[in-house]
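User: Good morning. I'm curious how zinc ion would be positioned relative to this chain. Could you predict the structure with it bound?
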Amino acid sequence: MLARSVVVTLLLLLAGCSQPQPVANNQPANVAPEPKPEPKPEPPKPKYRTDIVITTGVHGNEPSGYLIKDKLADLGFIVFGPCNPWGIEHGKRHLQDGRDLNRSFALDDCPEAEAVREFLRNNKPGLLLDLHEDPDGTAPYLIQNGPEDDLGRRIVDALKDEYDFDKEPQWGPIKGEDGLIKPTRGMLGFQKLSKVYSLGYYAWLTYGCTSFTVECPGTWPEEQRKAYHLRVCETARKLFSEN
Ligand SMILES: [Zn+2]
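Assistant: Good morning! Here's the predicted structure, ligand included:
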């Protein structure tokens, strides 16, 4: 009898070994475990950089940037202008006192320059676009302050199917090529000695941001000038945000 019960016990043990192991948790085997809660998604990053400042109406006879100010603000740009309100009101390039605001950003006795500087102190630019028109220009071009940056070339390349940029643009003694004037670091250093600061130069010198003076022919129809400035601003933002 003893031997038989040992055999039976061994058989039961062997049979037990072939049984499925019990489910580790205390859920019934035929019920799927509750799904774990999904981790909360990260809030989406803004699609574009939000530190792009656009200035308008520095020269009052070049109003197309100022005329798209509200549209630019609706698109999320930080916009200021007109920088020269008297000039815009009277259609004049210069300030009421006869000075050129875009040569006056090193001066401490120019209230219009100080208004722009204060705006920039409160809205520090990562990139600045100053919208102009060239009354004598025959084709659009950009002036870039920011010698180590290739953004100006990338903007022109991105838009060259839409616009015939000036092949040989020139700003004073500084010559550019294929739609872009890009003073070297040496030229920018010389400009500092001269104390003749444009808005774009002041922004680069003060905040280290690349800046552009955006130029198109003043003889273009108003709608074309406005559309061009809008295209440059949107293209610059897209490319700058990809950096
Ligand atoms: Zn101008």
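Residues 58-59, 62, 132 surround zinc ion (CB under 6 Å). The two ends are 87 Å apart (CA to CA).
Let me know if you'd like a different ligand tried.
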